[in-house]
Amino acid sequence: MTANTNPQAPAWWTILRAAVIFASGLLIAVMIAPRFLSQPPDLPRQSSDPSVLSSLLAFEQGVGQRLQSRVAEAERRLSGFQCTIDQASPNTGPAPTVFAGRPDMSRLRAVADGAVVFIQAGEGSGTGFFVTPRHVATNAHVVGAEVDVLVYSETLFPTPVRGRVTARTVKRGEGLAERDYAIVEVEGAQGVQPLQFMNRVTELDPVVSVGFPGLFQSFQQTGLPRMIFRAGEFIDALPQADGREVFAHSAEVLQGNSGGPLINACGQVIGMNTFIIWANPSGEGASPKVKTDFALPSADLADYLASEGVTVTTAQTCEP
């Protein structure tokens, strides 16, 4: 008789061993799960300077509080709201302009095609727009220290032309909301239709960001950059310590939109898209974060351009 070299273990032993393994796994899961559930991952910041981080955090929290306040106020106002529009009378002035639905994109594209351009400045790029037949406005951080840049427009310049940076603001500190402007002069441009400015905008007005965001260009495998439109609403004008304002809005801005126009339903410039902030309305470390897009107001841009001898056309009304 041949001996059995692999005897089968009793059934009770198999059950006991399985129970021990299961209990051990459950204990380990209970010990480590809270660490994964309670500690969100750290997110990188743009600077390691404590004073810069403290200033940025305070700005983020302030934006979050303002946004929460504005949302609550809008909800209060709209609760049970019924809209009636009276005819104009000598005592009340003209009836208000009412925006309904999405902006007329065919009209806005026709306006943008005659003015908005892609700017290549060394290794960097961004957006700009004609404010006169030969002057393009953009952000100083788009052109950097470059003097000569390339300017492209699918309708105006299918072949990129050269532009020369004739003026730019100098960054004074770490503030995101400080003036960030540059002027690019383009000689011999044909068919340009400079954008008009509009210095009046109210909460929840429809707005559109126009530009050449890099995210979309990275998925475009052939051809020159394409102009992208993103619709949203005007949120608020946020006052700054120096008396100026920055505009918060929801018409999405991505890297590459810098220097591009934020326009209203008439295609008039109400601001220049310049920066974004990811804020934690509930405090640092909270999740999820809220992204807000910011533009520098058209009135401030017009003042800067005038100081450099460039005069823009400012509209008084908007009739979509």
UniProtKB/TrEMBL annotation:
EC number from the UniProt entry: 3.4.21.-
GO MF annotation list: serine-type endopeptidase activity
Domain of life, per lineage: Bacteria
Pfam families according to UniProt: Trypsin_2
SUPFAM superfamilies with a match to the protein in the record: Trypsin-like serine proteases (SSF50494)
Residues that span the membrane, as ranges: 12-37
BP GO annotations: proteolysis
Keywords: Hydrolase, Membrane, Transmembrane, Transmembrane helix
Listed PANTHER family: PROTEASE DO-LIKE 5, CHLOROPLASTIC (PTHR43019:SF23), SERINE ENDOPROTEASE DEGS (PTHR43019)
Name of this protein: Putative Periplasmic serine proteinase
